Structures are given as structure tokens and as C-alpha cells.
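Sample entry (408 residues):
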Amino acid sequence: MSADDERRLARVALTWLAEPGTRAVHRLVERHGPVATLDLLLDGGSPDGWLHSTVAARTAAGDARAVAAEALERADRLGARLVTPDDEEWPAQVAVLANLRLPDVTRRVDVETAPPLCFWVRGSWPLGEALDRSVAVVGARAATGYGQHVATELGYGLAERDWTVVSGGAFGIDAAAHRGALNAGGLTVAVLACGLDRPYPMGNAALFDRIADTGLLVSEWPPGAEPLRPRFLIRNRVIAAGTRGTVLVEASARSGATQTARRAIHTNRVAMVVPGPVTSAMSVGAHELLREFPDKARLVTGVAHVLEEVGRIGADLAPPARGPQQPADALDDDARSLLEALPRRGVMGVDRLAARAGVDVRTALRKLSLLEELSMVVRRDDGYGLAPPAKAERATRAPAATEVPGLA
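Predicted structure, serialized as C-alpha cells:
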């Protein structure tokens, strides 16, 4: 076995001996390399009491190197590959997890958030390239119709603009985001909390096959690994760190999706929240995140807002929200004052109209002439009046008032 193969085998064995994200293992690998770290742990030399017990329990169930070799063979039959930090396609941005420290946490899944040792990947795209320009779209499994609609629109719009859509492959928001990207003919990545040959939930098996055909299925766990509950939170740190930003569409008060957004915030990634109805239980977690992190969590309502947050500075600005353009919007103050001063019915003489609008007669005549050209007013024998509805309707299709010389 070559030295490179030995290192790869050791990384797989270490991931089997201790769950991904274990900080003590990551520190040992950084200091001694994967092969020496594996030898050290198998010899009972763990510096951490919990890790020592875990390694002993796993070792009693099988030989770590033999398990790793079997996983590599199984992946090969599956058409999957192992990606390690030594490979060109490794996503370098996940290294930020070395500095991830979540405040006020005690659970092991919230403390053990170190970078991955390796990834199992199914699909033809290079992993690093796929994640380089990516956005995570996550949310509730028990999503409402509103949430699924928003997630689908986000997935489609991001993919249409050549952004990779990343999610966890779950029911609800995750599946809607993946499908939106697929329907746009774009790239989507599902980061799983189990082996690639045991995609969870099984109800999304057809979706996972579609993703593998055109995008990527990714996991830290070897083929055959079960989707245990803690693994979903362990997985979420990769979604947060591997993308440029995370959009939380819907989340209940205890949703794991809010933990993905929190990990994005604490890795200095962009965290975005789609607001929902205040009467919906599926909006509670999302709204609380906005309240808890008012300076870091950004409210977004569509693709344009998301791109403004994660795109190029100054090049992906969302257009300001505006109501429908009105014919009078382009008028200057004097012309608008005259228009407002006209009676709703009947006509008014120029002298009286000028006084009512607060402009001199000469200015009134000039502005009224231009308003007449725009079909906003009509001239009668005894003064000026508002144009009939039919003419006013045509005025909405007339050239902008600012294009008429002297109006502005």
C-alpha cells in the first residue's frame, strides 16, 4: 500500500472510530498526521477520556483498518469516491470550522465542531468547485405550502443564476430547494447525515438519484452508516461552513435548521431569514433568530436579496422595492401642485388655479401646456380640467414626464 493510500485509509478509520467533528482527533491529525494518530488511538494513547472510551468501544466491534478498507470497496461499487484534504477538489473553506465555538453550549454535538477529516462523494462535479459559489437553503421538514413555495423559488432562481443550491435532502424546505434547482437545470448538493448508500429519508430516494446524476451527494460517514439523530446536527456545520451563506426559510422553535443558521453566524458566513406569518408555528424559530441576532441575521424576501448578501460587492444589489409606476411620479413640484389643485369635476380658470397651487400665472400656463401634452389635463373655453379616464389611461403609456423639455 502506498503512503497516500495509507493516509486515506487512516482518515476513514478515524472517522469510524470517533464521530466527525471530534476536536481531539482533529488536533492529533494536524500535529501527527492521520496514520500516526490512528496508531496512537488504537494503542490506547488518547489524551481525552471520552475519546479513549469511544475508541475502545468501537475497536471491540471490529478492526478499524479492516472496516475502512471495506468502506472504500463498498464506495467503489456504489460509484462514490473519497475526498480528503490532500485532493485538489477538497473545499478549503471548511477549515474555518477549526475556529467555530458556539457560546453557552454543553451538548457534545455543539462542542465537537472541528473540520471534517474526509468526505464521501457521489456525482461527477469536483466538490470544491461545486461549493465555491454556493448558498444553503434550509428549513422545516413539516413545511407549510408558503414555505415550500418560497424554497422552490429560491432554489430555481439561484440555480438559474449559476449558484449551487446546498441543503440536507430532508422533506419539506430541503427537498423543495433541491427540486427548484433541478427544475432550473442547475447544480444542487445534498449533504447527508448517513452513508451514501442509505439516503435518508427513503421517501426522497428518487430525488437523491436525480441529484447524484447532475449534482452531488456528500457525506462524512462511510457507506452503510445509519442516520442517527445527533449526526444531523454534526452534518449541519458542514452546510454552514461550506457555503457563502445560509437562508433559513421556515423553522419551528426547536428546529435543527436554526442550528445551521447559528453555525453560519459563528463561522462569519451570511445568515439570512425569510419572514413568515406570525401566526404560524413554522415561523417562530426564524423570527427568533432575527430578534436574537439583529446585526448578523439578514431579512430576505427573494433571490435578489440573497444575491445582494452573498454576491459581489456593488454588483449584485437588489432593486429597491417600489409600488407601481404612476403617471405623476415624474412630474416636478409645480406641475404636481397644479394637477392636485384641479377639481375632481369641472374646470377652473388659470388665475384661480395658479393661486390655489401657489405658483405664478406664467409658470401655471407653461406647466398646464405640458400636462395637456401628456394627456393629464384638458383645456376648455373657461379653464382647465382633469383628463377623462380614457385619456388618463393612455397617459400611463406616454413618455416619462422627465423626457419632456422644461417639465422638470
